[in-house]
Amino acid sequence: MQDLTRRQMLAGLAAMPWLLPSGLNASVSRARVLVVGGGFAGATAARYLKRQAPALEVVLIEPKSAFYTCPFSNNVLAGMAELDSLRQDYRALQRQQVLHVRERAREIDLQARQVVLQDGQRLRYDRVFLAPGIDMDWQAIEGYDRNASMHLPHAWQAGAQTSLLRRQLQAMNDGGLVIISVPDNPYRCPPGPYERASLIAHYLSQAKPRSKLLILDSKDSFSKQALFQQGWQTLYGERIEWVGRAGDGRVVRADAIRRELVCEFGQRHRAAVINLIPPQKAAEVAQRSGLVDASGWVPIRPATFQAREASDIYVAGDACIAAPMPKSAYSANAQAKVAVAALLADLAGQAPPPAVWRNTCYSLLAPGQAVSIAADYGVQAQRLVELPGSLALSPLQAPLGLRAQEAALAEAWYQSICADAWGQLL
């Protein structure tokens, strides 16, 4: 019960405005901050920038009128929720006097200190908060590109791809095989594919009882592995099979028309439905702006989350290199708050406050049953590290009551963090 109480505390911290500087001077009110991207990191940043410095000019550059969250999108795939339950809009931010520019940011002109929009318009900035999220690496798997994803959906950016994969699962014949292909690290939401496997297996057990699910993994281990595999065995028996890289689980080629995957050592797999999650990289605006390194992600200065290549650019969320923090919604929200504090301190001519972060990740094994992992992070010797003794993992042997409490906490966390990021009332 003490562990559960700590988890409740961690979930509640998503809404805390920690580490924001005080005594901001007039130079802050004269500044313009452009926030690129309206996901968990970008929306949080825009809201907290304006909340802490109301006179600051905050402009959100986001082409969409609404954002669909990847957290809880697996519920939609399993028929446990509707797609609209994932929808978050920007009306509360607009009421807070955040200007929403509905255009795509193409690149950042670092010399001119301007963000160049897709339509050619240029917006001047004093600081940029860059939170563009991910793009798929369409060069990583032979035969898998944007067109192929219309047949073999990745569903790793929620919305249309989520609906497509859901329709494919509904349309498949009972007895058909489902394959989930998982990339190597790093990628968005490390436990996400395994929660997806759990909930799709639940759907299959209810609607397609003769069907099975195969996970082809580019890794030989994964987040919360023992918890997932124990849950799969208990809940789904032999319905889920996992194959790691050593067993030829890394997919290198895809044939979208034949619905066929080819693995590293030559094994071929055909299936009724294939969810191919490819390797990922920082979104295109980060690439075009020269902010990424050879990994495809943006290196940052750990204490402030400033881009290593440009001190007036702050980067948070999935696009940045913040290992050992995972690329998760909780991380993005926490990183955004610390980066906002550093940005405002910078504008005010103050030293950045000490930086600490937290991440908690919940995963559903089935409706009403969840497991979680949590850890704290800090900066030591100019490196971001997991703080000793902070790791909290669901117990391997746990009564159903505890799994049910974790599921309830997962729902409460989701509602809380969405309200915190987009400013909607619970």
From TrEMBL:
FAD/NAD(P)-binding domain ranges (all copies): 32-144
Pfam families the UniProt entry points to: FCSD-flav_bind, FCSD_central, Pyr_redox_2
All residue ranges annotated as the Sulfide dehydrogenase [flavocytochrome c] flavoprotein chain central domain in the record: 162-278
Record-annotated Flavocytochrome c sulphide dehydrogenase flavin-binding domain positions: 353-422
Keywords assigned by UniProt, alphabetized: FAD, Flavoprotein
InterPro entries (alphabetical): FAD/NAD-bd_sf, FAD/NAD-binding_dom, FAD/NAD-linked_Rdtase_dimer_sf, FCSD_central, FlavoCytC_S_DH_flav-bd, FlavoCytC_S_DH_flav-bd_sf, SQRD
Entry superkingdom: Bacteria
Listed name of the protein: NAD(P)/FAD-dependent oxidoreductase
Organism of origin: Pseudomonas spirodelae
Organism lineage: Bacteria, Pseudomonadati, Pseudomonadota, Gammaproteobacteria, Pseudomonadales
